Amino acid sequence: MKLQNSIKMPEYLHEIERVSVLLASLESELKTNRQRMLVQIVGDRSFCLASLPESEHWGAPIVLSNQQDIDNAIPFSKAETLLGTECTILVYDLFSGINVDVLCLSAGLVKSAGILVLISPDDMSEIDDPYGVWQSQQNSSSRFTDYFTEQCRQMITFRQNGCHEGLHTLITPSAMTDIVDGQTTEQQALLAQMKTWFVDKAKPVFLLTADRGRGKSTALGLFARAIQNDSIVTVTAYSRNQVAILLKQVLGESRIKFVSPDELIRRNEQMNCLLIDEAAMLPLNMLQQLITLSKKTVLATTTGGYEGTGQGFLVKFLTSMDEKSYQHSKLNLPVRWGQQDKLEAWMNRVLLFTHPKDKEGISTGKIDLSILDKDQFFSDHELLHSVYALLVSAHYRTRPSDLRQIMDDNSQFVIIAHQQKKIIGVLLLNQEGGFEEQLGDDIFLGVRRPKGHLLAQMITAQAGVKQFSSYRGLRVQRIAVIDDYRRQGVGRLLIDEANELVRRKKLDYLGSSFALDHAVTPFWSKMGFRLVHIASGKGKSSGRQTIAVLHSDNRNVLRVIDSLQNKLTNYLPIWLLSYCNTMAWQDVYTLTKLMKNNYELNCQDLDEIHAFAVGFRGFELTQASLQKFVLNKLMDNQTESLLEPDQMGLLIEKVLLNRPLSQISIARQISGRKQELKNIRQIIKIIK
Question: Could you tell me the pTM of the whole model?
């Protein structure tokens, strides 16, 4: 490691030498006990950098920093490129801010007998931390920073002034999991299960879950090698970096290839065996498409840590699958570090990765609602843990950084539903909008994008309502209810409380923006929300079209809602043929359930549709009339009972989306263009 602008100042020299001696002693003790530790170096930046450990055992550290004074330092934005690698010492630069996601990722890269080093100023409030700002600096607090600083005091700290802390911390032995012939006993048992599953035609999917460092990717690589003589194996993941360990196991094997998930879907070709590593990083609907393209599919995902979306993914995936169609197995014992690892235990405790024990014995009684004071989170860690754990278990994309926002973002409201002390539901709300005319004009023009005002910007800049950002409202950021309490009105109670909060604060609307999902979208319609916008891009995490819904008692906002719904009715046929063309047909069907305005069909439209259905009028000549006709029918709940799923899919994919036969989901069942049109004509007859 080379410091570009830092010099070992004479006044630091004695203390730097003392720190080096202490670190050398720590190195020996960690190696003896096969333990990992978190260590802080606190002081001026030049002192911290000059004190960084480097030895024959540790080697040059990996440094994560947004500063420019260290050669080869990796900025936080590039931290994901390190996934799949490991090191003995990793330095995280707190002078660059507390990026909780990157910090969590860092811990997973440190191997046994290594340390995660945090370099930080004596007073964290002195740094300009961009990761603690949501809407404005005034709307942010230092609760998380104070909480994090307090937790760091439990670990070893070297201070510039010589007042070191935690030097007598007991470094207990951490037993390593036994490895024989490159495999743990757990991995051997897992491989046996997977080989049996591979020849079982009844279960096309194998789901493998594990916390970080459990040897999941290595096991996938060993499995790929074991079956390569019987099958061509395809490997995919969110990025190639994430499968580096897997591919290392199969280096040079010609029948095992990596292909990106987008490319696999584009090819639309049947595969023998597909391995998807870190499946939780991919949108659920993309995973569902990939599963249909392979005879046998293994999905592996991390259920904690940086990839902490895995727990929510697990819930969503399992509910979307027939339990008879998959086999689920889990790896429990760590491989890359010991079983009593202090660094993992510290991260789990501080970032709340462990699940709190459920409060049993309360299944009936009155459900109360409370708007939490965020200062409670700093003093009541059990309350914070319960709220965050519920969000993690219910949502696909909850990350460690969400924990910081819950604690620090003062423009966010937290409403809980509880029976006595048991939290059964959580609602996160963000206050948005209220901009003056000039800033509103800049948002409309796309010149400005104020942070943290997602819905206000979406309706102003994307939906095109120039004055909308001047209205003040609340956006539903997350809503989660414990499984056992779903479909019992808890969600309605939370939304009712949010509407009451809008009235008490004299705001103009309550709204939400989310990915189209047939499982959750009807809820918003039942709550009285109205569809006002379909975004041109797909959500990064969902892979689905993002929509916006609004509810308001304000006359001016109601006029905006009416106008936007009329716009949707007029433009939807065009959008379905353009930027919405790649939507899954199930999502298009879900979208129609939010539409309220029917399309007017004149006599000529009806004559053309009749001629197509019972005669031989051309599809292209009739498509404009057919689009309006089909959209009207899909808004009618009776249509679903008249058609089989394959018929519904063909109807939507051809008439509304105009996809070529090769891109239609049931293309393999249709011999060619002539049969395709014949099937469409029959479907139109059925629903006429």
Answer: 0.88
